[in-house]
Amino acid sequence: MRVSGSFNGTGATVYLCLGFIPDFVHVWNLQGTQILEAYWNKEMMRAIEVVEGLQNSGASSTISALTIGTGILPYYGGTVLTSTTAGTTTYAEGVYLKKDDRDYRYASAASSPHGLYDAVSNTIDTWTLGTASTHKGNFNADATGTYIGPGSPIKIDGRYYSIVALTAGQGISSEEVTLSHGPTSGDIEFIGGMYTTTPMIAGEVTLDGFVLTNTTINVNDAQCAFEAGTYDR
């Protein structure tokens, strides 16, 4: 098994509840001006010097050993969260994070299959390409920006792209949206959240995954990405 995902940096310890214990983890800060990454695999637990992995950072690509309390380790779930242990549960925050693959392009709770929505007036269902060379265009409605924004996956005519620039409260006017690459005008079938994860809340039971204590990578409000998986046995 091998998975990838993203989360908003918290600047504090964060638990990524994947549903399995990974054998390896790689985490990147996507918004640093220089390389910022940490990586770990289960064999590193054999040595105290790198028990929580290695960090690669800076213009000179400095490699640092991640000792106890400074990196990545497996996290064994099964904890029933309380309001205290769950911490802040606002979207893009949180201590314990789970997978989020909901479609947020709706304009009301009634029209959304899960009750959450982020369109200002109408369901966002149309993409109009403006300038192909810059991948800019617009939607048929503005996005509030609570869930939809830079980092959101978007499916247009059966193909997935990512939103890389969009100001909250905008989207309907010409070239207010920039995508990762430029599709022609078409039908929007899905828009996910800015992150593939969402905070767990009180009463939920945490799943297995990994814990990230490194805050050099996990910078507050920075888009972070990860991949994790298991080795063939």
Determine the structural class based on helices, strands and strand pairing.
mainly beta
Number of domains: 2
Q: Over the alpha carbons, how many angstroms does the gyration radius reach?
A: 19 Å
State mean pLDDT (0 to 100 scale).
96
CA distance, first residue to last residue: 11 Å
In helices, the fraction of residues equals under 10%
Q: How large a portion of the residues is in β-strands, by DSSP E?
A: 35-45%
Report the biggest beta sheet as strand number plus sense, adding barrel if it closes: 6 strands, antiparallel
Number of strands: 17
Number of helices: 1
| Rough outline | globular
Q: Descriptors for this entry?
A:
233 residues; mainly beta; 6-stranded antiparallel β-sheet; 6-stranded antiparallel β-barrel; globular
Notes on the structure:
The protein has 233 residues and is mainly β. It folds into two domains: 2-99 and 197-229, no CATH class; 126-191. Helix content is 2%, strand content 36%. The protein contains one helix and 17 strands. The chain has one helix at 83-86; strands at 2-8, 14-17, 24-29, 36-41, 54-57, 62-65, 72-75, 96-99, 126-131, 136-139, 153-156, 159-165, 177-179, 186-191, 197-199, 209-212, 223-229. A six-stranded antiparallel beta sheet has the order 1-17-3-4-5-6, with no helix packed on it. Strand 5 and strand 6 (62-65) form a beta hairpin. The longest helix has 4 residues, at 83-86. The termini are close together. The relative contact order is 0.30. The model has no long low-confidence stretch (mean pLDDT 96).
